[in-house]
Each structure stands twice: as C-alpha cells, then as structure tokens.
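Give me the fold.
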Amino acid sequence: MRMIVGASYVLAVWQGDVDPVFPYISSSGDHRPESCFFSMMLNLCSFLIMLIIYLRYSLVVELNRDSDHLLRRLNIFTLVVGMTGGIGMFIVANFQESAVITVHLTGAFLCFGCGCFYMLLQFCLTIYMCPLYNSRRIGFIRGAIAISAILCFITVLSFGIAASNEFHKHYPDLPTPRPWSRKTNQPGYSLHCVSAIAEWCLAICNVLFILSFSRDFEKLRVELTVQPLVSHLDHSPLWRSATDLNFIISSEKVSVPKKPLSKTSSAVERVVVKL
C-alpha cells in the first residue's frame, strides 16, 4: 500500500497535478495517468487486505473451535466491520474525487472509519485471547496502533471540515479546492495541511496494523482442496458433496467388504494446494 500511494504521489507531482506539500492521498490519484495506476493497484490492495482479514478470522475460528461463544460472536462482528472497510477501499479506488465526490467521500469514510473500528476490535480480541492463545505484548502493540489511527482519523475529519469552513467564509460561492494548493491564496490551507498529514499518518497506521498479523500467520497453513465427484465431466454426480461421497464409500465398505467400488466412485481424487 505504501508503494502504491508513494508511486501515485511521485507521478502526480511530476505531472504537476498536485502540490508537493502534503496533498490528500486521493488527490495524488485523481488525474490521469496516475489515476489509472492508483485505481488498478488500490483494487489489488483492497482484495489482499480483505483476504488478510478473512485469514485472521479463520485463524481465530480454528483456535477457538466454538468453545467460547463470546469470542465467536466478537470474531464474526470484527470480520463484518473489516470487510466493510475493504469495500470502502474498493469505492475509493474506482470513484475519483473529481468524478463523483459524494461517493468517493463515502468510500473514504467507510475505508478509514471501519478500518479504525476494526483495529480497535482486533485489539479487544487480542486482549481477550490472552494468555490462552497469544501474549499480552502483541495486544498492547495493536492497541497503540489502533489508538494512534483513531486520533489521526479524528484529526483528518475535524481539520478537513475546519479548512473547508474557513475557505467558504471568504469565498462562499466557490467549491472547496480540489486539490488544495499553496501557490494561490486559499484561506484554510494551513488547516488542510494538518488534515492531510494526519491522513498520511493514518495510512501508515493501517499498514503497521496489518503487519502485526505477520507473526500469527507464520503459524498458519492454508489449504485449497479440490475433489472431483465424477470421472467424466459430462456425467452427473451421484452425490451432492464430498461428505456424501465419503459416507457412501464407508457404507459400502462396511456392508459389503469384498464388493469393489463403482467406476465413478473410484475416480475420486484429492488435490491439496498449499498457499
């Protein structure tokens, strides 16, 4: 994510589309050609983040095994909040602020707002799982990152709104500058800079929080299992799932031990792919 934002920022400054002194992240990916690169890579980043969120959810599920109902409910709620933030990032990637500003701002609020809430929930989840599943130290690390992200998010909103209000006091008939620039007389520019700096710090907090899962994922193995139900793809399966197939095979083995399996049943294969 840092590479995506950094590359878009460098390209936007090189093209002269934004002021080099702390523009908003979205402003650095608002004009072509940097918007094309920004959208493509941010879509990929959104998918990967949602995958990481799901892996974290699955890891907690496997550790808990439904033994703690409060942990299970909290884990599910955290997953929903995280996925909502991922959807917000998809919206930010595909709706530039100069194209559909309302949709873009809604996506940004979902992305950063739900992202901060997700970090706070993960902090609570980590502390709750201590000391049975993890140490208290990683919980404090995630808590510090989550609190920093929340403070940055509040700063982004408050100073961004203050900058817009200050500008409209002097120019009530003009829209809010997008992007802001220090080269022209724009009241509220200093307030905008504080908001923009906080947004960049918020993005860094998001990256650091995702990196805090790295030690957990070192102990995780992900498998993709493929189980064909027929020997010929033009045939219809005699069962609806691999569970039904295993039940049929085990029943045949118990009832008639010497009877060979049918041609369709014997063709079942299992391919395990380790990611």
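Residues 255-275 have pLDDT under 50 and may be disordered.
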